[in-house]
Amino acid sequence: MRPSFNIETDMPALERRVAELKNVRLIIIDPIMAFMGEVNAHNLAEVRGAMAPLASLAEKHDLAIALVHHLNKSSTGNSYLRVSGSTGYLDAARCQRRSKNAPAGRRKSAPLVGFVRLTL
Questions:
Q1: Of the candidates 21, 20, 16, 51, which has an alpha carbon nearest to the alpha carbon of residue 35?
Q2: What confidence tens digit (pLDDT) does each residue in 39-62 have?
Q3: What angle do CA 14, 20, 31 make, to 5 degrees?
Q4: 60 domain-assigned
């Protein structure tokens, strides 16, 4: 089953829709991996190439694009390297945030959220 949006083929349609609505301030793509089409998610150059039109759209229309991306199942190591697929997803972002469940014994309803990188 084809997802409702494919970053490789549907960017012109997204751009048209944003222009029609005129007041779009945020686009959320969740999870980004589901909408990458035939892009090799482990290839840095392909991922960066796929992210470039999103960056152009955001700049042209003065809006934010939030990409949801999950970490791999490893519980050790640098969180930057735990991203599923290429680090190109992170490299293309101006701001990266991570969240995780609070440690046992703390409020379980309040996840921990923090900035990993902020580039303005």
A1: 51
A2: 998 888 898 889 899 989 999 999
A3: 30
A4: yes
